C-alpha cells in the first residue's frame, strides 16, 4: 500500500451553495490540496465515515445543522481532525463561539486563496504535530531500549530494521515472547516516512471472532445489535501510518481472507457500509508461532503468509545474545530507579554472573520483570534479592517433583500433580505472562485463574 502524493493534506469542504463549494474545491486542488466537497453536515459525516481527511473547511451558516453543530459533533466523532470555519463579517461572534467549541480557526468571506492556504496548512501541520508528540511520548522508552545491545545477532536485526524502514514493504517479525518484537516495529515506524503518522497495534490473539470485523474495519451505527455509535477500525486509525498485527499467527481463518484483500488492494468495507473505504497503511506483522508449520498444517493461509513474508526479521532470544545481559540489566535498573524516584543501585560482578547463568525463557521481558520485582519488593537489598527461576513467583510442588516410584499410585493425585507441573512449566516458558501461559496450555485466560486457585499458586507476580 504505497503512500499517496497528497502533498498538503486532504480537505473536506462543507458548503451548501454549489457554486461556492465547487470553486473552493477547484482552488484548493490547484494549490496541491486533495479536496472534495459536500453540501451539508449530514453528507459530511457520511463522507467522513468512508474516507479519512486531514482537515474540514466548513461554512458557518447552512440550512439545518450549521458549522457550529458540525464542530460540536466532530469533537465526539473525530476530535483529532481540525475544523476551519468560513464566516461573513457579521458572524465573527458566532465564529468565536465555534473556536470555543473546538474549531481550529476561522476565515472571513470572501475567502482569499492565500488566507485559505495559510489556515489549512496551519491546521494540517498542527494535527500532524499533535499526533507526532503523542507517538514520541509513547515511543521514547521503546527507542532507548531497542538500541541497547552489542551482540552480533542483535546488531544484524537492527541493520535489517533500518534497511527496511524507509520502504513501504510489509515486514514480518518473528521470535519468542519477550524478545522485543513490538519495539522493533516501533523503530521501523519511527525511521520511516510515516513517522509523523499514527502507530497502531492490535493483538490478533485477543480479538474475539464475533467482533473481529468491527475491531479491524469499524462499523456504522445501527449495523448490528449494540452498535450505538459509529466506530473506527484499526485500519482507519492507522491511515497514513503503521499497523502492527501482533500475534498474527492466532488470527482466525475467517479474518485471514479479509486481511489479505486489504493488504493487496488497500480497501475494505466497514460493517454496515456498502461502499469500500480506502486507506494508506503500512502493515507490520509479528508472531511467536511457527507460521511455516502453520501453513503446512493448513491453519494459516499460504497466500496471506507470502504477502506478509516480504521482509522477514527473526529476533534472537536473550540466551543467544548473553553478552548484552549486563547492558540490558543496567538499562532497566536506571530506568526503573528513575521511575521510582530512587538512586540507581550498583550492579556488581556476582549479580551479573547470576544473570548470565539463568536461561531466561521469558527473554528481555522476564529480565525486566525480575529486576523490577526485586527493586520494589526488597529495596533494602535491591539487586541482591533477584529471584531467578521462580517462574514469576510460582513455587514448585515437592510432591509433584518426586520420582514416580516414591509416589502413591492414586490416579487423581497423580493427575493433579501433572496438572500443577504443566501450569508451572507454562508460566516458566511464558516468562510469567498469563495470556501466553494460557495459550501454551490451550485454555482460556479466564480459566487459568481457576487452575491457579485450585493448586494454591501465587499469581500476584504474574503479568496480565
Nutshell version of this structure?
The protein is of the alpha/beta class and 464 residues long. It is built from 19 helices and 14 strands.
- Tally of helical runs: 19
Shape: elongated
- Sheet with the most strands, sense and barrel status: 5 strands, parallel
Proportion of beta-strand residues: 5-15%
Helix content: 40-55%
Distance between the termini: 34 Å
Number of folding domains?
Answer: 4
CATH class call of the largest domain: Alpha Beta
Radius of gyration, taken over Cα atoms and rounded to an integer in Å: 27 Å
- Spatial arrangement of strands, main beta sheet: 2-1-3-4-5
CATH homology superfamily of the largest domain: P-loop containing nucleotide triphosphate hydrolases
Mean pLDDT: 81
pLDDT < 50 stretches: 1-7, 391-407, 460-464
Number of DSSP strand runs: 14
Per CATH, what is the topology of the largest domain?
Answer: Rossmann fold
**Helix- and strand-based class?**
alpha/beta
Please name the CATH architecture of the largest domain. 3-Layer(aba) Sandwich
Question: How would you sum up this structure, described in words?
Answer:
The protein is of the alpha/beta class and 464 residues long. The chain folds into four domains: 10-130, Response regulator (Rossmann fold, 3-Layer(aba) Sandwich), CATH 3.40.50; 147-316, P-loop containing nucleotide triphosphate hydrolases (Rossmann fold), CATH 3.40.50; 319-389, Helicase, Ruva Protein, domain 3, CATH 1.10.8.60; 398-454, Orthogonal Bundle (Arc Repressor Mutant, subunit A), CATH 1.10.10. 47% of the residues lie in helices and 12% in strands. It is built from 19 helices and 14 strands. It has helices at 18-30, 41-48, 67-77, 92-101, 113-146, 152-164, 181-190, 212-217, 234-237, 253-265, 291-296, 302-308, 325-340, 349-357, 363-377, 398-401, 411-429, 434-441, 445-454, and strands spanning 10-14, 34-38, 55-59, 83-87, 105-108, 171-174, 199-203, 218-219, 231-232, 242-246, 267-268, 277-278, 282-287, 311-314. The protein has a five-stranded parallel beta sheet, with helices on both faces. A five-stranded parallel beta sheet has the order 7-10-13-6-14. A two-stranded antiparallel ribbon has the order 8-9. Strand 11 and strand 12 (277-278) form a beta hairpin. The radius of gyration is 27 Å and the shape is elongated. The two termini are 34 Å apart. Residues 1-7, 391-407 and 460-464 have low confidence and may be disordered.
Amino acid at each position: 500500500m504505497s503512500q499517496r502524493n497528497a502533498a498538503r493534506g486532504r480537505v473536506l469542504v462543507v458548503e451548501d451553495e454549489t457554486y461556492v463549494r465547487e470553486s473552493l474545491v477547484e482552488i484548493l486542488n490547484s494549490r496541491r490540496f486533495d479536496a472534495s466537497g459536500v453540501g451539508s453536515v449530514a453528507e459530511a459525516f457520511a463522507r467522513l465515515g468512508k474516507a479519512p481527511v486531514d482537515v474540514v473547511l466548513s461554512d458557518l451558516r447552512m440550512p439545518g445543522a450549521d458549522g457550529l453543530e458540525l464542530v460540536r459533533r466532530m469533537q465526539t466523532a473525530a476530535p483529532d481532525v481540525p475544523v476551519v470555519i468560513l464566516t461573513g463579517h457579521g458572524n465573527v461572534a458566532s465564529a468565536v463561539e465555534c473556536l470555543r467549541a473546538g474549531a481550529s480557526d476561522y476565515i472571513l468571506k470572501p475567502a482569499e486563496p492565500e488566507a485559505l492556504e495559510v489556515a489549512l496548512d496551519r491546521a494540517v501541520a498542527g494535527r500532524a504535530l499533535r499526533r507526532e508528540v503523542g507517538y514520541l511520548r509513547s515511543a521514547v522508552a521503546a527507542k532507548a531500549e531497542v538500541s541497547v545491545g552489542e551482540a552480533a545477532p542483535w546488531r544484524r536485526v537492527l541493520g535489517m530494521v533500518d534497511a527496511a524502514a524507509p520502504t513501504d514493504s510489509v515486514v514480518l517479525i518473528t521470535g519468542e515472547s519477550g524478545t522485543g518484537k513490538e519495539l522493533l516495529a516501533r523503530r521501523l515506524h519511527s525511521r520511516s516516512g510515516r513517522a509523523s503518522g499514527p502507530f497502531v497495534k492490535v493483538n490478533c490473539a485477543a480479538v474475539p471472532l464475533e467482533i473481529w470485523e468491527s475491531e479491524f474495519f469499524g462499523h456504522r451505527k445501527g449495523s448490528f445489535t449494540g452498535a450505538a455509535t459509529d466506530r473506527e477500525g484499526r485500519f482507519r486509525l492507522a491511515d497514513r501510518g503503521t499497523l502492527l498485527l501482533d500475534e498474527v499467527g492466532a488470527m482466525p481463518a475467517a479474518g485471514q481472507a479479509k486481511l489479505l484483500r486489504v493488504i493487496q488492494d488497500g480497501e475494505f468495507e466497514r460493517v454496515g457500509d456498502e461502499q469500500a473505504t480506502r486507506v494508506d497503511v503500512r502493515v507490520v506483522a509479528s508472531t511467536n508461532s511457527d507460521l511455516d508449520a502453520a501453513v503446512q498444517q493448513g491453519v494459516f493461509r499460504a497466500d496471506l503468509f507470502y504477502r506478509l513474508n516480504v521482509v522477514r526479521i527473526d529476533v534472537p532470544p536473550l540466551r543467544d545474545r548473553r553478552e548484552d545481559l549486563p547492558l540490558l540489566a543496567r538499562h532497566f535498573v536506571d530506568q526503573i530507579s528513575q521511575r521510582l524516584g530512587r538512586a540507581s543501585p550498583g550492579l556488581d560482578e556476582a549479580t551479573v554472573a547470576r544473570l548470565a547463568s539463568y536461561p531466561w525463557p521469558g527473554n528481555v521481558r522476564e529480565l525486566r520483570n525480575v529486576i523490577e520485582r526485586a527493586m520494589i519488593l526488597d529495596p533494602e537489598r535491591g539487586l541482591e534479592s533477584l529471584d531467578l527461576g521462580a517462574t514469576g513467583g510460582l513455587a514448585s510442588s515437592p510432591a509433584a517433583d518426586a520420582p514416580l516410584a516414591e509416589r502413591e499410585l492414586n490416579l487423581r493425585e497423580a493427575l493433579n500433580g501433572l496438572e500443577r507441573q504443566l501450569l508451572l512449566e507454562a508460566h516458566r516458558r511464558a516468562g510469567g505472562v498469563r495470556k501466553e501461559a494460557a495459550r501454551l496450555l490451550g485454555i482460556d485466560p479466564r480459566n487459568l485463574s481457576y487452575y491457579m486457585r485450585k493448586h494454591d499458586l501465587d499469581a500476584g507476580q504474574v503479568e496480565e
